[in-house]
Amino acid sequence: MELPTPPLLHTHSAMKSTSSILLIKLFILQCSLSLLCVAVAQQDFDFFYFVQQWPGSYCDTKASCCYPTTGKPATDFGIHGLWPNYKDGSYPSNCDPDSHFNRSQVSDLISRMQRSWPTLACPRGDGSLFWSHEWEKHGTCSESVLDQHHYFKTALNLKETLGLLPILQSAGINPDGGSYSLSRIRGAIKDALGFTPWIECNVDASGNSQLYQVYVCIDNQGSNTIECPVLPTGSKCASTVQFPSF
Ligand code: 5GP
Ligand code: 5GP
């Protein structure tokens, strides 16, 4: 036979369960808030890698290259990208699927982009695919700091300010197919910029290690060169590397 619950006990357990529900609700609210905070924090980033590529080293590989529809690029480093990064070495990507590269937002920069950010991938193109990829994968992750126009302009200005090729040439390091010690290349850039760059190599069709990309770190406003908080993971170089002509 079931015994009737004493009234006092009933009230007490009802109060207990109400407060437990409240506690659970509070807990859920707190969790959602902190998840939101994590999600918001994930959108942020600590610094940029500004990456430039040597066209001669992109083109003399087994895979070869295609010149853009606008013609053979200048004998100069070209921009690969401006990549937001975290100090732990990880990085955000494709942060806003609704934000697409929009030529009309950068119409005043297109001729500079064709000159300084040429595409070398095949099939040949006018650059739009490369710029779209870079904007969508990387640019959308720094949109809170640099809108699309600002993002491309910042990269173009950085390329001009840093002037990698003149820096190397003044140090007697020329794109002449010769071999140079990696520490000499790194040292020349460090002496000129005040910060150590990361050098990434690839291999030419005969398997020689060659200077392919140079990474310089930039603060999270896109304004100043900084010491890299963490080194990139791009392919390491041999101690002596070739600097192919283009
Ligand atoms: P890879 O695997 O050829 O080194 O890199 C492929 C692509 O991944 C790069 O072109 C770039 O878009 C991205 N990536 C590779 N390493 C990094 C990195 O350290 N930071 C950022 N932000 N992107 C990277
Ligand atoms: P990432 O390596 O930056 O993630 O991807 C680069 C993408 O842009 C690849 O899909 C690649 O085919 C394309 N791309 C177009 N032009 C170039 C170029 O000149 N250099 C490099 N590295 N990638 C290019």
CATH architecture of the largest domain: Alpha-Beta Complex
Shape: globular
Q: Report the biggest beta sheet as strand number plus sense, adding barrel if it closes.
A: 5 strands, antiparallel
Proportion of residues in β-strands: 15-25%
Quaternary structure type? single chain
Span from first to last CA? 96 Å
How many beta-strand runs? Answer: 7
Order of helices and strands: HEHEHHHHEHEEEE
Rg, Cα atoms, Å: 26 Å
Q: List low-confidence stretches.
A: 1-16, 33-43
Q: How much helix, percentage-wise, in residues?
A: 25-40%
Mean pLDDT: 88
CATH class of the largest domain: Alpha Beta
- Number of structural domains: 2
CATH topology of the largest domain: Ribonuclease Rh, Chain A
So how many helices?
7
How does the helix and strand content classify structurally? alpha+beta
User: What name goes with the CATH superfamily of the largest domain?
Assistant: Ribonuclease T2-like
Bound molecules: guanosine-5'-monophosphate
